[in-house]
Amino acid sequence: NDKRIRLYVNEKNVGDYPNRNYAASLARGKYLKYVDSDDYIYPNGLKILVEGMEKYPDAAWGICTSRPDIERPFPFMLNPYESYLYHFFGPGLFHKGPLATIIKKKYFEEAGTFSNQRMISDTDMWYRLSLKNPVVLFQDGIVWQRRHPDQELSDQKKYIPEGEKLKWKYLLAPDCKLTRQHIQKIKSGRIKRYSGFILSGIKKLDIEQIRIYIKCLRYILRIKV
After folding, report:
1. Which of 84, 67, 166 is nearest to 119 (CA)?
2. Which strands sit side by side in the sheet containing 61-64, from one edge to the other?
3. Helix orientation angle between 180-204 and 207-221, rounded to the nearest 10 degrees
4. Contact present, 97 and 26 (Cβ < 8 Å)
5. Which of 14, 39, 107, 127 suits a disulfide with 60, CB 3.0-4.6 Å?
6. Which residues, 6 or more positions from 212, have their beta carbon under 8 angstroms from its beta carbon?
7. Helix, strand, coil shares of the chain as percentages rounded to 5?
8. 162 by DSSP, 3-state: which?
């Protein structure tokens, strides 16, 4: 009975990200907010997100972080340089799913909407948006994501190598604001990290872990910074 609510049902299952893009094309408002059927947004959650975005009109999107920031209260804005630093040298930023975000529709469309890469299309979008636009960081506790063994996230380890390639696509992009020294430090850190994961897999006789991180390590070693 509420005229603000419009229901659309697809004739067939079009898949996760094509469906998100279709929903965005139907939206009439300034902001996009995704909440999947088994997830939850807390009372006043939309109010907090919208008011935070309105406080920073230059921002293209916002994301809820899982860790408190020791220097300042939420919400606050990061420019492209700061957001990449925050992700690669701080608590991390681009690893959250669409539930944790709010996006200005204008910038979503300018960025080219979600790609159709399973598991990593949301991360791809966050990298793209923050390559050129500021982001607003919000506190945890605005949304809740259900976790269970049968959901897509249960096999996300398979997509770690693809996620690694995606990361370097943006780190090496001409528009990336990080310096060569930053990128070299990221590369060295990844080599050390993935070598440790390979050794850990050998100790545990975890063939899948060994295979995944050898693939990542080989890819990184070929990168020229």
Report:
1. 166
2. 31-32, 101-104, 61-64, 135-138, 76-78
3. 160
4. no
5. 107
6. 157, 158, 160, 161, 197
7. 50, 10, 40
8. helix
Q: Shortest CA distance to 108 belongs to which of 87, 81, 126? A: 126
Contact 194, 188 (CB under 8 A): no
Query: Which residues, including other chains, have CB under 8 Å from residue 2's CB and lie 6 or more apart?
Result: none
| pLDDT string in tens for the chain (225-residue length) | 898 899 999 999 999 999 999 999 999 999 999 999 889 999 999 999 999 999 999 999 999 987 888 889 999 999 999 999 999 999 999 999 999 999 999 999 999 999 988 889 999 999 999 999 999 999 999 999 887 666 655 567 889 999 999 999 999 999 999 999 999 999 999 999 999 999 999 999 999 999 999 999 999 999 999
